[in-house]
Amino acid sequence: MFYTLLYIAGILIIFQVLDxxxxxxxxxxxxxxxxxxxxxxxxxxxxxxxIAIITIKKMKK
Length: 61
Hints:
The chain is mainly alpha-helical. The chain has helices spanning about 1-25, 30-60. Keywords: Membrane, Transmembrane, Transmembrane helix.
């Protein structure tokens, strides 16, 4: 549970830093930036689910 909270806090901090960097340096619009972050969250969520399924299947054997 602790690691999940740490992961979420880390993602939020990284998103804040990337938001400042990308908006100031590359002048990306907020709409594009939000889409990028949502895609990142979706991909990491799918990856966690796949890892969890593989781990559960290995533990059952």
